[in-house]
Amino acid sequence: MPATSFVFGYRPSTKSERIYRHWYEVGYHRPQDDLDQPIDWKEAADFNAFFYALVDRVTDGDKGRNGSRGASSNYNKERDMRLGLASVAAVALLAGRAAATDYKATPIMGIAGPEDLELLPDGQTLVVGQFRRPPVPGGLSLLDTSTGTSLPLPITDSPAAGWGEPGCTAPKHIGAHGIHLSKRSDGRWQLLAVNHEDRESLEFLELVGSGRATRAIWHGCVISSDGAYNDVAATPDGGFVATIPTDAKVFAANGGKAPMDGKSDTGYLVAWRPGKGQVRLPGSDAPYNNGIQLSPDGKVAFFNAWTAKEVRRYDIAAGKVTGTIRLAFRPDNLTWSRDGTLVAAGTDEASGGASCPQIDGMCALGFGIARIDLKTFRATPVYTAPAGVMVGVSVAIEVGRDFYVGGFSGNRIVKLTPQ
């Protein structure tokens, strides 16, 4: 019998095209291409109805095989079989497409270099790690998401045992990069902050108060013995695991630059334990180690290989990578979602070039956000933005139903509200 198929497409340079290409790059004919993906059942039903009518009209319509419809019961059975198979094919086709949500993007201005974000226990206040990018000094601030207003995070100094290396002195200023919020074993809230101002260090701060009244007390630090930290995640024993994106030897061998080809291993992970110092973790070398999070027990690290467009799962005790996810963008930071998944965000380098839209004189690359299920270790696209929305996207964090998106450059945070 004749075979009929329908090929659907998209308008060029639209969200539909971006979703289509992203799925074919990271999902099609891969282990994550299964029925665990979200399915838009209404769209499936509408597509089935269209496909049913298409098959009926193109194959026989009202005329039947020889011009006299219904003349043969065998014809009717064959026709019903064709239409049934068409419906099954349509459902299978749609099952492989991630349901997309439209978001309204609202800029929150006046926050320079919001490279990393952490949500406080009140569920509405964000700690902002503002990237040091001269002449911008960087720092730490608070964003009240209920009002969209920000203010500097007040910091006082009070050295204390058990918070970093003994004898480490307070910094004059924290030129922040990656940050990490956790609750210590004694119930106190700890903020770790990568610092690039005057030294390469990790600063240990205690957060007290709540909401807009939150303030920080600096208790200690660890000076890096390897190179510049990028991001950090606290361990249950009072230590941390951090990313070093560029090995000093690799940096020197390439004329003071890190290879950005996505294939060359440039960095690695380090672990610091109280009383034991800092060590390089074997088997963690990757192309530009970037954002990091740890499992609650501290045994597994999830980190981004930025230039390789990968998220990797690393078994700390075994000293090896046990899983890799390929994304359509360069994942920068990772944040925890309320449902226990991880959220990755980063720029789409392919959207650059001479025609890249400018914001404050800088190329505003497109960016992507993806949700990572740790049980299956698979990624689902959440949002794909065209060029021109904001500069240097490095982080997205879920606050209620919204996402707040920050970048290592620029002067804004973008709030994404589902429509």
Q: Key features?
A:
2 domains, 27 strands, 4-stranded antiparallel β-sheet, single chain, Neuraminidase, mainly beta, 14% helix, 419 residues, 5-stranded mixed β-sheet
What does this protein structure show overall?
This protein is mainly beta. The protein has two domains: 15-95, no CATH class; 104-418, TolB, C-terminal domain (Neuraminidase, 6 Propeller). Helices cover 14% and strands 38% of the residues. The chain is built from four helices and 27 strands. The protein has helices spanning 15-26, 41-59, 73-95, 248-253, and strands at 103-109, 114-119, 125-130, 139-144, 149-152, 155-157, 176-183, 189-195, 201-208, 215-223, 232-234, 240-244, 268-273, 277-280, 289-294, 300-305, 310-315, 320-326, 330-336, 342-348, 358-359, 362-363, 366-373, 378-385, 393-399, 402-407, 412-418. Helix 2 runs antiparallel to helix 3 (73-95). The longest helix is centred in the first third of the chain and has 23 residues, at 73-95.
In short:
By secondary structure, the protein is mostly beta strands. The protein contains 4 helices and 27 strands. The protein has 2 domains: 15-95, no CATH class; 104-418, TolB, C-terminal domain (Neuraminidase, 6 Propeller).
- Number-wise, the strands total 27
Taken as a percent bin, the fraction of beta residues is 35-45%
| Poorly predicted parts | 64-72, 85-100
Please, how many helices? Answer: 4
Kindly provide the name of the CATH class of the largest domain: Mainly Beta
Itemize the secondary structure elements and their pairings.
Layout: H1 15-26, H2 41-59, H3 73-95, E1 103-109, E2 114-119, E3 125-130, E4 139-144, E5 149-152, E6 155-157, E7 176-183, E8 189-195, E9 201-208, E10 215-223, E11 232-234, E12 240-244, H4 248-253, E13 268-273, E14 277-280, E15 289-294, E16 300-305, E17 310-315, E18 320-326, E19 330-336, E20 342-348, E21 358-359, E22 362-363, E23 366-373, E24 378-385, E25 393-399, E26 402-407, E27 412-418
Parallel strand pairs: 6-10
Antiparallel strand pairs: 1-27, 2-3, 3-4, 4-5, 7-8, 8-9, 9-10, 11-12, 12-13, 13-14, 15-16, 16-17, 17-18, 19-20, 20-23, 21-22, 23-24, 25-26, 26-27
Helix pairs in contact: 2-3
